[in-house]
Structure of Glutathione S-transferase:
Amino acid sequence: MTAQSIGKLYGPVNAPKVMKVLLIAAINGLELETIPGFDILADTKTPEYLAKFPMGQSPGFETKSGFYLAESAAIAIHVADLKKDTTLFGKTEEDRSKVLQFVFNNETQVDRFASSINYKILGYLKMDADMETMFYHFLDRNLTYYNDLLATKDYLVADQLTLADIFLFFSLFGPYKTFIGEERKEKFANLTKFMERLTKDEKIAKILANAN
């Protein structure tokens, strides 16, 4: 690791959970190293990796001091907190709590249902028709919630980009490319505009370009 680096992030640079952390580091002006050619199926099973991250999860975060952290949300919050005057939690303590509400909602709701549908389409997960219908129902319930919130604002909290927006964007980045079709994009027009606007954000666009 370089002297300026805050640590090393293990994971494919084109994975949304990795891109999310890289974006947070970039916004905070922090240097974060990645592992070129990281193979999530093979590299997470090596004895060396499991010694650091026993559950074999990716991404994993390591510092020079030997601090190891798994769970992408925990890593994201940790990296955001490394800059004391970060704008990523809003402006007040109430903003911070609201940001964390959206972070946890995305982890337990949006990402859960969207990823499961995506994995089914990609052939990584089997589910019957009833379960798929249920997952779409709960995903659409969440999309409606965010679509309504974004009817009168560009960002979820404090009129500025925060972790809340970043988590929502990367929870839906893959699904918007794979299975959220034109009908749903029109139905959730405010959310679609949000996704399109953030895709054009300079720092986000750079992260996406580097992932290709």
